[in-house]
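Re: Re: token formats

Sure, here are both.
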Amino acid sequence: MELQWQRQVEYWLRLMSVERVAARENMMVQQGKDVFYLERENGRAKLTVARQVPDAQSVPTLLRLMLLLQPEAANGVPMRTWLARNQLWLAATAPAGSGAELWHQLGKLQQRLLNRVTVGIHANT
């Protein structure tokens, strides 16, 4: 693993308050009800978050999230969303040369968007 990438991943883990996890090229981190995936693709960081949603609410929740995904929502960083394995997924690929602080900001934004569309939804519904 490239040293610069490793240092940025270590910094991202600290920003996420994750302890005792070694930096790797591709990471998976559990944060409450969300699972974050940090992957390196063509020298860029792709940050994906997944959250469990009840099957009966999955499509309406996806549609609500799609309405929120305007380019300005993430300062021009495009986001994609989809449903898979009873989870709502939201992904963004950070611009080349960006670092852990932007990755962390994107992750927090992704969580806020998911919170906004899943308010009042319970996983056992």
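Second one below.
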Amino acid sequence: MASSWRGASISPKAFGIPCGAYLPLMACLYVGHKLWVWIAAVMIIVCFGVMAHIGWTLNVCWNKFLGFMRGGRIVSRPWWYRNRFRD
């Protein structure tokens, strides 16, 4: 029997695109009704749809950005090493 918690962390999707990608379109309803704003919102949604299709969700991109900013090498010691061995 499958666990009921298996799908607890899956993000909701509408038409295969994460629902967070539709936020620019919702912002268009409140910001303005210019044509370029609608086109930009639709292009952002399409971009998020393509990224979600290849597996790069917003969380994955954010974590990759943080890893890039952090760098390839961590120069600090873990908390248990600092507490046990004083430098």
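The mean pLDDT is 78. The CA atoms of residues 23 and 80 lie 42 Å apart.
- S.
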